[in-house]
C-alpha cells in the first residue's frame, strides 16, 4: 500500500504547477528614455511592487504547502486505518477458513457416524425380527409340548390319581390360607407387644422421676438442717503490707471508680473496718456489693444468729455476706439497697431503696425509703424492724417466732411471706411450687428462681425515682 503513495504525490505536484505558472508576472517597464540617460538600477517603486508580489506568492505557496501537508497526513492516516482494517479482515478470513476446514472434517466424521448408525439400526431391526420369529416358534413348540404332556398325563394317571391330586391341591390351598391368617395374627400380636413396651417405658420413666422426687424430698430435712459453709475470709500474713491494706477500696463502687469492670470477688475495707472479701457486681454505670444471692437451693439459709451476723455460703454460688459487713457498708452514707428477682419464666423484677442499717446494739434495725421499682413496695412493712433468726426472736409476733416458722433470718414484722432468705424448694412435691415462695402483697404471689440483694454508694445526696427499669434490673450472676 505504501507504493501507491508516490503516484498520488506526483499527481498532486502536477496539479500545483498551474498555480505556480498561472500567476502573471508584473510587466517589466520599458523605458523609452534615451540610452544615454537610462539608469542601471530599477526604480524604487518597481522594486517594492516586485517584493510585495514575491511575498504574496511566498505566502500563498506556504499556505498551499501547509494545506497539502495536512491533506497528505489525512490520506496517510486513512491509509493506515485501511491497512489495519485490511489486516484484521485478513486475520478473520484466515480464522474463518480454519473453522471451515474443521467444520468440513466434523461433517465428514458425522457422515461416517451417521452411516454407522444407520447400519447398526438396520442390524438391530433385523435381529429384533429374528427374535420375534424365534419367539413365535418357541411359543408354538411350548403349546405343542403342553398338549403332548396333557395327553401323556391323561393316559398315565387314573381318575383316582387325578382326584387325589385335586384333593391335595385343595389341602395345600387351605394350608396356605391358614398360614396367611396366622401371619396376620402374629403381626397384630407384635403391634400389641410394641404398644405394651411403650407403655412400660413411659411407666418406668414416671417411676424414675417419682423416685428422684421422693429422694429429694427425703433429703430435704438433711439440706435444711445442714450447717452452711463459711465465706472465704480475708487472709493476712506477716508479709502483708499495711499500706496496701489501708489503700483497699471502701466498697465495690470505689473499685468501679478506680477502673475495675469485671465482676468477681475482691477485698474491700468500708469505713475503716476490718477488711473482708466481697462479691462485686459491676454494672454499666456503677459497682454494687452483693450481700445476698439465691439461685439453686444448695445452701441452707435456716441458720443461727451467729451465722447471719458473720456470713455464710459460697461467693460463686449462694451466700449471705453478714450483718456486721452490711452495717459497715451502710454507715458510709448515701447507700442504695437494690433487690433483684427472677421467676421461673425468666421474668425479672427489681426494687430500690434508700438504705441504712443500725449496729448490733439495735439488732441491726433496717431503715428503708422506696425509690423505684416495678413491683408493689414489698418492704414497706419491714422498715424499722430488727433482724430475727430462729435462735433470736425480734419480730412483732407475740405468739410465735416468724424465723422459726418460715425458716431463715429476716427483718420480720408480724411474719408474712416477704422473706427472701426462706426455704428454697428444689422440686415440686404434692403440687407445691418450687423455688422461693414470696408474697410481697395481698394479691400477688411469686415463685422465685433467683434473688440478689446488693448495696452501692452514690455521691449525690438524693436519687431520682424515675430511674429506668432496664438499667435498674441489671444482670443476676
UniProtKB/TrEMBL annotation:
PROSITE patterns: FIBRINOGEN_C_2 (PS51406), PROKAR_LIPOPROTEIN (PS51257)
Record's signal peptide: 1-22
Coiled coil spans: 96-155
Keyword Signal included in the entry's annotation: yes
Pfam family, one: Fibrinogen_C
Domain Fibrinogen C-terminal as annotated: residue spans: 243-459
Protein's recorded name: Fibrinogen C-terminal domain-containing protein
Gene Ontology annotations for the cellular component aspect, listed alphabetically: extracellular space
Gene3D superfamilies (alphabetical): Gamma Fibrinogen, chain A, domain 1
Keyword Coiled coil on entry: yes
Amino acid at each position: 500500500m505504501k507504493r501507491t503513495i508516490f503516484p498520488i504525490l506526483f499527481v498532486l505536484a502536477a496539479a500545483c504547477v498551474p498555480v505556480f505558472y498561472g500567476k502573471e508576472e508584473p510587466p517589466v517597464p520599458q523605458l523609452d528614455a534615451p540610452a544615454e540617460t537610462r539608469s542601471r538600477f530599477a526604480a524604487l517603486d518597481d522594486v517594492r511592487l516586485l517584493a510585495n508580489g514575491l511575498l504574496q506568492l511566498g505566502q500563498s505557496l506556504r499556505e498551499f504547502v501547509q494545506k497539502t501537508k495536512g491533506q497528505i497526513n489525512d490520506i496517510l492516516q486513512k491509509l493506515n486505518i485501511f491497512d489495519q482494517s485490511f489486516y484484521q479482515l485478513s486475520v478473520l478470513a484466515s480464522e474463518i477458513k480454519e473453522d471451515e476446514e474443521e467444520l468440513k472434517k466434523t461433517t465428514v466424521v458425522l457422515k461416517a457416524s451417521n452411516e454407522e448408525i444407520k447400519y447398526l439400526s438396520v442390524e438391530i431391526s433385523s435381529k429384533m425380527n429374528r427374535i420375534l420369529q424365534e419367539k413365535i416358534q418357541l411359543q408354538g413348540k411350548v403349546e405343542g409340548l403342553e398338549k403332548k404332556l396333557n395327553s401323556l398325563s391323561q393316559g398315565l394317571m387314573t381318575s383316582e390319581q387325578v382326584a387325589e391330586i385335586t384333593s391335595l391341591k385343595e389341602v395345600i390351598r387351605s394350608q396356605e390360607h391358614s398360614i396367611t391368617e396366622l401371619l396376620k395374627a402374629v403381626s397384630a400380636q407384635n403391634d400389641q407387644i410394641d404398644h405394651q413396651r411403650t407403655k412400660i417405658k413411659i411407666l418406668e420413666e414416671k417411676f424414675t422421676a417419682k423416685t428422684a422426687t421422693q429422694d429429694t424430698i427425703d433429703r430435704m430435712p438433711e439440706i435444711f438442717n445442714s450447717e452452711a459453709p463459711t465465706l472465704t475470709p480475708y487472709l493476712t500474713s506477716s508479709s502483708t503490707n499495711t499500706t496496701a491494706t489501708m489503700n483497699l477500696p471502701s466498697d465495690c463502687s470505689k473499685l468501679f471508680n478506680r477502673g475495675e469492670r469485671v465482676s468477681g470477688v475482691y477485698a474491700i475495707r468500708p469505713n475503716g473496718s476490718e477488711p473482708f472479701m466481697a462479691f462485686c457486681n459491676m454494672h454499666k454505670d456503677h459497682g454494687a456489693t452483693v450481700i445476698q444471692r439465691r439461685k439453686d437451693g444448695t445452701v441452707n439459709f435456716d441458720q443461727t444468729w451467729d451465722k447471719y451476723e458473720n456470713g455464710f455460703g459460697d461467693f460463686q454460688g449462694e451466700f449471705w455476706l453478714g450483718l456486721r459487713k452490711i452495717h459497715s457498708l451502710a454507715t458510709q452514707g448515701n447507700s442504695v439497697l437494690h433487690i433483684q428477682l427472677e421467676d421461673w419464666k425468666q421474668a425479672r423484677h427489681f426494687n430500690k431503696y434508700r438504705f441504712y442499717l443500725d449496729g448490733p446494739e439495735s439488732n441491726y434495725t433496717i431503715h428503708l425509703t422506696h425509690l423505684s421499682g416495678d413491683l408493689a413496695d414489698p418492704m414497706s412493712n419491714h422498715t424499722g424492724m430488727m433482724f430475727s433468726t430462729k435462735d433470736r426472736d425480734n419480730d412483732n409476733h407475740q405468739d410465735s417466732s416468724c424465723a422459726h416458722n418460715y425458716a431463715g433470718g429476716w427483718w420480720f414484722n408480724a411474719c408474712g411471706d416477704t422473706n427472701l432468705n426462706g426455704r428454697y424448694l428444689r422440686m415440686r412435691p404434692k403440687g407445691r411450687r418450687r423455688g422461693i415462695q414470696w408474697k410481697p402483697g395481698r394479691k400477688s404471689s411469686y415463685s422465685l428462681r433467683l434473688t440478689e440483694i446488693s448495696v452501692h454508694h452514690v455521691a449525690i445526696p438524693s436519687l431520682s425515682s424515675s430511674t429506668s427499669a432496664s438499667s435498674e434490673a441489671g444482670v443476676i450472676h
